[in-house]
Specification:
The protein is mainly alpha-helical and 489 residues long. The chain has a single domain, classed as Sodium/glucose cotransporter, CATH 1.20.1730. Helices cover 74% and strands 1% of the residues. Strand 1 and strand 2 form a beta hairpin.
């Protein structure tokens, strides 16, 4: 069926409207604190919705339904771990972040260990966040090229440019408040899409339930987390299977790292009016995220009930949902859903641009030019935003035709660094004896083991952060006992 003029008009109105809305915040940016922390005057509920939007990308909206189409709801075990991770951050890391005036997560590392380790952790964040975001931006091209018929590179360029405009001008305030709008757009659009799919499936919900139950699509818990070993009486954990009950542990470690050490989320938590509101925003966002992932998985199960063909018939599972929108959805609703997917893409991209820019300026430039004026800082912050937009565009182009199921590729790239980062942060806040030399040794060991798990093993990504964190913490603490330099208080 394809999109018609009404659909294209809806998409165009959304893209122009959200860009203009973001530009409303440009006059409020007078200092670096305004640009990177929104003057710490954002209410908790807006931060909560912004966290949800930052966790959600085009990967989530198109790839999670594809995951359910191919399998079931066992991914929710990872999301359950996300809730545990939020509680850990609230008690362990957030109190540290609200001691003093911090702009980035890595200033905490300098306060505890020293400037060398701060540079290493911030540099690792920049590398891995840019790589992961490149894959996410690439995912936009899958949707836009199917919907609008534009080339993949042109699709990436359009979204990157429009997002850059309001992020460049409005800083974190524009990012957060556009996130709020975009969250309502893509969640509302998904709900409309779900109802529409239900009406298109012959037999309605009864048919969906029957087909899904027969294929075990609604299975949430997978208790087969071990491999029986014939030669011994002891079972061994199945480390190659990603979504078993043990994924709750993996999800908890992954979330603690992603929301407790990654500037993308920490920056939002620091923009809260106080620590209590930051905790409230973090915990409430977890409830919303669980609902959201369940919603996207349900869409995938319903699409399976509609098509009942292997995902290979579409080329790849990530193409199923956008193909359905364009070819089967009524006009108007199709345009709304494409706009909803673009909303998720733009909210995530704007978050990445602002966080990469903040870490570049605060963790690198200001270490050498601490006396720079506010005018200079603000000008360089905007220039850094442009620079990172170009980098992400280039990485997205490189990712074309080089990745598998995009949501898992994005999670894998992030997981490679998260274990080492979380291990260092836990060394800093949970121990007194750990010092900078020991932490650097531990971080190197943790990163090495995670690279091996990624490139040289069949261990599922849900185990990577657990392993990297454990190795970093253990090796870092042991090395610190050998290098008995005085640890910073």
């Amino acid at each position: 069926m394809g999109l018609n003029r009404i659909d294209l008009l809806i998409v165009a109105v959304y893209l122009v409207g959200i860009t203009l809305f973001g530009l409303r915040f440009r006059k409020r940016q007078r200092t670096m604190r305004d640009y990177f922390l929104a003057d710490r005057d954002i209410p908790w509920w807006a931060i909560a919705l912004s966290i949800v939007a930052a966790e959600t990308s085009t990967l989530t909206i198109i790839s999670i339904p594809g995951l359910a189409y191919d399998s079931n709801f066992t991914f929710l075990q990872v999301v359950m771990g996300y809730m545990i991770g939020r509680v850990i951050i609230s008690f362990v890391l957030l109190p540290q972040y609200f001691r003093g005036e911090l702009y980035t997560a890595y200033q905490l590392i300098e306060r505890r260990f020293g400037s060398d380790l701060r540079t290493i952790t911030a540099g690792l964040f920049l590398l891995t966040r840019a790589a992961a975001e490149g894959v996410r931006v690439y995912a936009v091209s899958i949707v836009v090229s199917i919907a609008l018929g534009t080339g993949e590179i042109a699709s990436i360029a359009i979204i990157t440019l429009l997002t850059l405009i309001y992020t460049f001008e409005g800083g974190l305030a524009a990012v957060i408040w556009t996130d709020v709008v975009q969250t309502f757009v893509y969640v509302g659009g998904t709900l409309v899409g779900l109802i529409t799919i239900l009406h298109l499936v012959p037999g309605g919900w009864g048919s969906v339930q029957s087909i899904a139950a027969e294929m075990h699509k609604f299975q949430v818990f997978d208790l087969h987390f071990y491999d029986p070993v014939i030669s011994t009486h002891w079972p061994h954990l199945n480390f190659a299977k990603p979504y078993t009950l043990c994924a709750i542990i993996g999800g908890a470690f992954f979330l603690t790292a992603s929301h407790g050490t990654d500037q993308l989320i920490v920056q939002r938590l620091l923009a809260a009016r106080n620590q209590r509101q930051s905790v409230l925003a973090l915990l409430s966002s977890g409830v919303a995220i669980f609902f959201q992932f369940a919603l996207f998985l349900l869409v995938g199960a319903m699409l399976f009930a509609y098509y009942r063909v292997p995902s290979s018939a579409f080329g790849r599972a990530d193409r199923i949902y956008p193909t359905f929108i364009v070819s089967r959805m009524p006009h108007g609703i199709a345009g709304l859903l494409i706009a909803a997917i673009l909303a998720a893409a733009m909210s995530n991209l704007s978050a990445a641009l602002n966080s990469l820019s903040s870490s570049s300026i605060v963790d690198f430039y200001l270490q050498f030019r601490a006396t720079a004026s506010e005018e200079t800082r603000l000008r360089l912050a905007r220039l850094a935003t442009v620079g990172w937009a170009l980098v992400l565009f280039g990485l997205a182009v490189l990712a074309l035709h080089r990745v598998g199921r995009v949501v898992e590729v994005g999670l894998q790239i992030a997981s490679v660094a998260y274990g080492a980062l979380l291990g260092v942060f836990l060394l800093g806040v949970l121990t007194k004896r750990a010092n900078q030399c020991g932490a650097i040794v531990g971080m190197g060991a943790g990163l090495a083991i995670e690279l091996y798990l990624w490139l040289g093993s069949s261990v599922a990504w849900t185990w990577w952060v657990v392993t990297g964190t454990s190795v970093t913490f253990a090796m870092g603490y042991a090395a610190s006992l050998l290098w008995r330099d005085e640890a910073k208080a």
